[in-house]
Design brief:
The protein contains 10 helices and 41 strands. The strands form 7 sheets. The chain has an 11-stranded parallel sheet, with no helix packed on it. The protein binds uridine-diphosphate-N-acetylglucosamine and calcium ion (CA). Calcium ion binds next to loops. The site of uridine-diphosphate-N-acetylglucosamine (UD1) has 32 residues, from strand 1, helix 3 and strand 10.
Length: 465
């Protein structure tokens, strides 16, 4: 059986991160997530992740989906693989792919092609390489007359070796039995005092085993991130690829400034994404919609002909022909049905809003089930929290809610019910009834004049005469 060991235990000192480096995100997915996705794309599901520095972050992310092996002390990439020995021995008949958790672009295709190459050459080890214009920071591939000779780390390399542009991706296919034997031969005799996995190449050749390099035509697949600058570069590369993919699918960008789209996002043709818009997670956007400017959308399903303008929306569904914004917050677990209009300064949370309902301005709808064609007056508040628990409001079809209505949950407005402006509704209102809660208006004639006189007539004697 073929299997994978992913190295994610290192400190990542150069990042100055408080979380393990492979947990840093490229677009909206941790680098480790990219690597796992590529393995699964190549139909490799037996995966062991080596954790170490702040292992709890990696464990939390993996959530028991994959095996882990803990590296208590970070003594190098070779030492990291040694920690997975138990995992390797369980199925030592096939091949093992070793990947770095900080090189997110290694893709399924390259992994599969390298495996074919590895098997057809009957190699003990195959290292994936590429030619980089700037090889700084990577291990250099040294080739002799009979092919691959060794990998030398930049810190250990001579000037002539540093001039080599073919570099080690940090991804290798090993025959599992060979890997187990080679790990036993590693030592710490190098500039960093670490067990280098790269030394397995020289060791294999010394044993007379076959080892060679599979050179990727696309240098991007090997890019890794050791510094914040590298990470920014990876983000720029990934972002551009995602935008190009959507353009090929007919998505319209007038200008791409500030637009960041996660790699799992799906967008229909003829939808326009406007500047300053960030779309993350498993979001799906239908065709012919306009999203932006300045929207932040996470894990939402959005229909066709939708307009979102200055909207933040999370874990919610927005159906077709809905118009939202500007300055609207749609919080998790909301369902906005066809043809709804939501205007400025509105917050919706954990609520269903029925077809063609209008919530035009300055309104909070939380924990509520709202019917069709309801009209919310400006400043309506569903008072869903009594300081102890959250409760629901139910608003029937065709209700007309007057401005500044408070609906004290739990409460129900029947079908077609009206509330007068300023009403605080504390009990259920039957179908087609009007709820009005008002004190009589008192008008005190001339009341303000007494106070205003000195302002209005400063030169007089205050109006006494
Ligand atoms: C490594 C390779 C280098 C290659 C480069 C590709 C070695 C010695 N060098 O260098 O040839 O060009 O990757 O990106 O292998 N890790 C552990 N435990 C450790 C040390 C590292 O789990 O004790 C993990 C890190 O979290 C990281 C990966 O291994 O995900 C690579 O480690 P890193 O220190 O970044 O190696 P590089 O210096 O980049
Ligand atoms: Ca690295």
């Amino acid at each position: 059986m073929n299997q994978v060991v992913i190295l994610a235990g290192g400190h990542g000192n150069r990042m100055k991160a408080v979380i393990p480096k492979p947990m840093l995100e490229v677009l909206d997915v941790p680098m480790l997530g990219w690597v796992i996705r590529s393995c699964e794309g190549a139909e490799l599901s037996r995966i062991c992740v080596v954790t170490g520095y702040k292992a709890q972050y990696v464990e939390m992310y993996l959530n028991d989906r994959y095996r882990t092996a803990f590296q208590a002390e970070q003594l190098g990439t070779g030492h990291a693989v040694m920690q997975a020995e138990k995992f390797l021995r369980e199925f030592d008949n096939g091949n093992t792919l070793v990947l770095c958790g900080d090189a997110p672009f290694m893709d399924s295709e390259t992994i599969s092609q390298a495996l074919k190459f590895h098997e057809s050459h009957e190699n003990a080890v195959t290292v994936i390489t590429a030619e980089l214009d700037d090889p700084t920071g990577y291990g250099r591939i040294l080739r002799g007359e009979s092919g691959l000779a060794a990998i030398v780390e930049e810190k250990d390399a001579t000037e002539a070796q540093r001039a080599v542009h073919e570099v080690n991706s940090g991804a290798y296919w090993f025959r599992t039995k060979a890997l187990l034997e080679l790990l036993g031969g590693l030592s710490q005799s190098n500039a960093q005092g670490e067990y280098y996995l790269t030394d397995t190449i020289g060791l294999a050749l010394e044993k007379g085993w076959k080892a060679s390099a599979f050179r990727s035509e696309n240098p991007e697949v090997i890019l890794g991130a050791n510094t914040r600058k590298d990470l920014l570069y990876l983000n720029a590369v990934a972002r551009q690829h995602v935008l190009e993919k959507h353009m090929e699918n007919g998505v319209n960008f007038v200008c791409t400034d500030g637009i960041i789209i996660g790699s799992d996002v799906e967008i229909g043709a003829e939808t326009t994404i406007l500047p300053g818009t960030i779309v993350k997670g498993k979001t799906k956007i239908g065709a012919k919609s306009t999203i932006g400017p300045n929207c932040l959308i996470e894990n939402c399903t959005i229909g066709e002909h939708v307009t979102l303008n200055y909207v933040q929306a999370y874990e919610s569904e927005i159906e077709d022909a809905v118009k939202v914004g500007p300055f609207v917050h749609i919080r998790p677990n909301s369902h906005i049905k066809n043809g709804v209009k939501i205007g400025d300064f509105v917050e919706i949370k954990n609520s269903t809003i029925g077809e063609q309902t209008a919530i035009a301005h300055l309104t909070y709808v939380g924990d509520s089930d709202v019917g069709k064609k309801v009209n919310f007056g400006c400043g309506t508040v569903t008072v869903n929290y009594d300081g102890m628990k959250k409760q629901r409001c139910e608003i029937g079809d065709n209700c007309f809610i007057g401005c500044n209505t408070n609906l004290i949950a739990p409460v129900k407005l029947g079908k077609g019910a009206y509330t007068a402006a300023g009403t605080t509704v504390t009990k259920d209102v039957p179908d087609y009834a009007l709820a009005v809660e008002r004190a009589d208006l008192k008008v005190k004639e001339g009341y303000s004049l007494k106070k205003l006189r000195s302002k209005l007539f400063p030169d007089s004697d205050g109006g006494k005469n």
